[in-house]
Task: inverse folding
DNA sequence: ACATTGACCTGAGAGC
DNA sequence: TGCTCTCAGGTCAATG
């Protein structure tokens, strides 16, 4: 679930449920979610504080803690947030539970433990240390920067789109959607695309993610319709009705239309 | 430097 | 019912 558009939704959920509330206490129920950070530090930083605002970069969500630093959340493959009141409603696989003074609880749920909970004092520094590239929807990713990053790469287009150090936020599903809109097969080598195709790729990347991240998600308004609901066995192309095919690219399942998406080179 | 592969985790679903 | 296998929307370390 949690690619850029999903994290945008989780940010809205966090804003609606946690901002302005005061933390009474918090607990980490499985230390493996911390990626080396200290559970004691997380608890100490949150206790008695309020969340004042949030910031999303790629698939990371940062929540500013009143007076002192940021809570870092990454949702991995299976992360989500759940606000609840009654203890009986605590979700399974809650890895971080924040208890608010007003009796509500916010759980960071992560079945497969591939997500991350941490603390940082400086968001920019955190992103730099981890080698995270510019946000896919950010203002500093203009066409020029995009071309700088992707032009001349030798590997598959899809592999490059998925690489968070190049551009942050695109995951397996939206990479397929962007490539469907662009009419390019996922295994096409990046350096086989013309300048014009790269520009189209950039425009589609922005449009797809903007539409998907909007509160009223509207992918079906895309010029070619959306391939996303047709992923999986027996899917058909929304544009030409050909059977959707599947192949592995960069180790990930990739769905594409054999008629609308051509391989170059 | 760049690209590909396996490992990290758990759970759901298919097939026997 | 229960076992085994495959797969899942992410990322890192190790390898070519």
Result:
């Amino acid at each position: 679930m949690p690619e850029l558009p999903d994290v945008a939704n989780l940010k809205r959920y966090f804003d609606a449920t946690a901002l302005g509330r005061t933390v009474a206490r918090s607990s980490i129920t499985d230390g493996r979610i911390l990626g080396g950070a200290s559970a004691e530090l997380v608890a100490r930083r949150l206790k008695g504080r309020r969340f004042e605002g949030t910031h999303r970069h790629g698939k990371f969500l940062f929540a500013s803690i009143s007076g002192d630093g940021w809570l870092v959340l990454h949702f991995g493959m299976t992360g989500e947030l759940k606000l609840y009141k009654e203890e009986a409603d605590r979700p399974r696989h809650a890895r971080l539970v924040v208890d608010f003074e007003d009796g509500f609880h916010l759980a960071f749920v992560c079945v497969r433990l591939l997500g991350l909970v941490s603390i940082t004092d400086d968001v920019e520094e955190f992103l730099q240390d981890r080698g995270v590239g510019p946000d896919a929807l950010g203002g500093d990713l203009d066409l020029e920067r995009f071309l700088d990053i992707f032009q001349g790469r030798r590997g598959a287009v899809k592999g490059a789109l998925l690489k968070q150090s190049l551009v942050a936020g695109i995951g397996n599903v939206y990479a397929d959607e962007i490539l469907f809109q662009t009419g390019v097969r996922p295994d096409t080598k990046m350096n086989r695309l013309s300048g014009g195709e790269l520009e189209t790729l950039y425009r589609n990347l922005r449009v797809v993610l903007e539409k998907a991240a909007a509160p009223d998600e509207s992918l079906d308004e895309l010029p070619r319709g959306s391939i996303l609901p047709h992923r999986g066995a027996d899917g058909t192309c929304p544009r030409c009705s050909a059977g959707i095919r599947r192949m592995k690219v960069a180790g990930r399942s990739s769905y594409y239309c054999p008629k609308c998406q051509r391989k170059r080179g």
